[in-house]
Amino acid sequence: MKQGAVVLLSGGMDSTVVAYHVRELVGSEPIEFISFNYGQRHKKELEYARVTARALKGEHVLVDLSGINSLVQGSALTSSDIPVPEGHYAAPTMKLTVVPNRNMIMLSIAAGLAVSRERGMVVCAVHAGDHAVYPDCRPEFIAQLNEAIRIGNEGFGEPELVAPFVYQTKADIARRGAELGVPWGDTWSCYKGGLIHCGKCGTCVERREAFQLAGITDPTEYEGSLVT
Amino acid sequence: MKQGAVVLLSGGMDSTVVAYHVRELVGSEPIEFISFNYGQRHKKELEYARVTARALKGEHVLVDLSGINSLVQGSALTSSDIPVPEGHYAAPTMKLTVVPNRNMIMLSIAAGLAVSRERGMVVCAVHAGDHAVYPDCRPEFIAQLNEAIRIGNEGFGEPELVAPFVYQTKADIARRGAELGVPWGDTWSCYKGGLIHCGKCGTCVERREAFQLAGITDPTEYEGSLVT
User: Fold this and answer.
1) Structure ipTM
2) Interface of A with B in 164-223 (CB under 8 A)
3) Does A79 lie at the interface with B, CB-CB under 8 angstroms?
4) Residue A57 domain boundaries
5) Which of A195, A208, A212, B196 shows the greatest Cβ crowding within 10 Å of its Cβ?
6) Is there a domain that residue B88 lies in?
7) What is the number of alpha carbons within 13 Å of residue B177 lying toward its C-beta?
8) Residue B61: its chain A contacts at CB < 8 A?
């Protein structure tokens, strides 16, 4: 009988909130928290993922995808030759941070794990703020991929693909996180992966904004001041 | 402008015929032939893939997915503890050879490569003989995943997913291969990965049968005699 979930956990604030949300949802059922090393320069986030997986008493599955590095030329997320763009996350320059088809690749592997472990769900943290930049974060993509997973694993205990915040903003996620008591210090957003959050890259700007809009005190220590 | 194709090439007879088929189709446009090392025990097929990629003047991209090995417990394709089942490929025992969600994982990565290289197509060799055993080889899965790839990469030069033999049998593929002059000695089918084809495992039985049904002399050297 299927039970529990596989949760994509990057170590950022969105997927950490989803992790706490799913733990509440499934109670004591098993959860695998799956993280990907795809050669990102902010590899630091993986340590934060490990901390959350342990806090939530789930298995942490780290998948090494650095072999697909050669596929993602042109992404500032993986190439040290390209500077990480600064400014707001929803700006056109953020397309530079797109790793082609990244979500489908990660969700496919998570679905494979869910089939193998007989979990009922694969859960990911895409939200409305991502839609403008990443086509593979839109509700229609999640719906389509969910159907592909169902058809492709029919008869093998196909898991459901769930994106609980796909119609919500990052501020909504911050609010839900506060409700769940998520320890924000266990989350990492900055694409630059320095000692503390840079405060200037797309995800830092977005993180600060989310806390502000949610009316929650932002406990994060940032290097610079907010670029607007 | 998009041109050329990314072709999934395992080194088996089906994908090798597809490789020759696509080379004819796209003329001198660039092709990436993508192969996956997922910890299969018949790793030998990858050498055959390399030979075909070179013969067809395409780049051979080998992706190391052995990190997902831990996901596929229970598959005779990757575990040396489980014997490779013998007998006909379409038998229920062949489900043992299923790596969960394998096709979606490989096609997602191939699609990422196609987006990155601006190729028009991702081509794979699934055929009607696979439908009974593998749900992710059915036409409805290919159609659904094609749509997910389109939506997930909209605005980034989304490639089309093409499965030219999805409604045809392996015998049809053998016939098409003969037409194209595919050098059968450059293809490897046996799941056991020995010195010569075992002649008894599912893919060997299927290979022999395909040549017989197509009325083509089978040049393959087999260890045993056909198990029926």
Assistant:
1) 0.88
2) none
3) no
4) 5-214
5) A208
6) no
7) 31
8) 70-71
